[in-house]
Design goal:
Elements (H helix, E strand, L loop, with lengths): L5 H4 L20 E7 L3 H15 L5 E6 L6 H9 L5 E5 L5 H12 L4 E4 L4 E3 L1 H11 L7 E6 L9 E3 L2 H8 L9 E4 H5 L3 H4 L5 H9 L7 E11 L15 H14 L7 H15 L4 H9 L5 H5 L5 H5 L3 H9 L2 H13 L2
Parallel strand pairs: 1-2, 1-4, 2-3, 6-9
Antiparallel strand pairs: 4-8, 5-9, 6-8, 7-9
Length: about 350
Amino acid sequence: MDDIDIPSLLSPAKNADGWDRASPAVNTVLSIALPTYNRGPLLDNALARLIATVAPHSIRILVSDNASTDDTAAVVKRHAAHYPLLDYVCNEENLGPDGNFEAVLRQASTRYVWLLGDTYEIEAAALERVLIAATGEHAFDAIVVDVEQRAKAIPEQIYTDSSALLAELGWHMTCMSALILNRDLINAGAFERYRNTSFIHVGIVFDHIAQRTPSILWLNGQGAKALRIVGQTKVSVWEQQIFEIWVDRWTGFVLSLPAAYKLQAKFTCIALHARSSALFSLANIVKLRASGILNIMKITSRWNALRLATGRTRFLLLVCALVPTPVARLAVKIRSLRP
């Protein structure tokens, strides 16, 4: 941990938003990178809230559309008419999630870039803290913020030990909205190495700091949170591939990180995601069976990685996979009726 005092680091400073108030201009310290695909209605609400939060700081928003076939372009155009610092690029073809992350990060030219999900909003107080840290003399490789306060138990600190960062926060950094990356890290990013892993945004960070003393600022508490709009439902792109992504790819990705990381730190990182995210809680496992996502083939085809990646015994997963789907659906329904 660095010896820099975090409270002092986050004390308000003159022009902390990165531009001269006497001559308003585009913020050169921070921009928002927002990859999206076929979620026009959700993006509409996300942009409305985001613009209201970042406009006082003249922060540019970069939207990278992964060749959407819905009304995404029209949605962005409508918001851009009122906020000229909203830029839109539509890829000629769908690059996949990782490719779109890379594309939008490479578009930015500010000192730091906040990689934000298209169904998340930034908390205003968190933005103020990030801007103060980003405009200071100390240059961080990345700033990591909390999302839904799910990692608030981890003390605020500056990580200078890459294995400690992996073990304690690696699981949380999978949420793209938690990451604010330094321009130098992006320029040096090993994007090609981690393309099609589903975790390219995490890979470029840990690859960059593997052979050097890192400086990663962790700010817990407020950060980003998921949008909750009445009448709109977020459909997770990975939900139908939960075993493929969070057992196969997640385990393979972490174990493929440079040898500079301690093996125990890698194991801890893999296991902590299941424990902290509750993706494989018993209630969710029953839901997976009820929806038909969980079946015997999902278990037997990845026998070795299951315990590490899910935190559940293979026996429990097998039993749940054998439960008739009507029974699992009934169990989910009964649970939903509980007060």
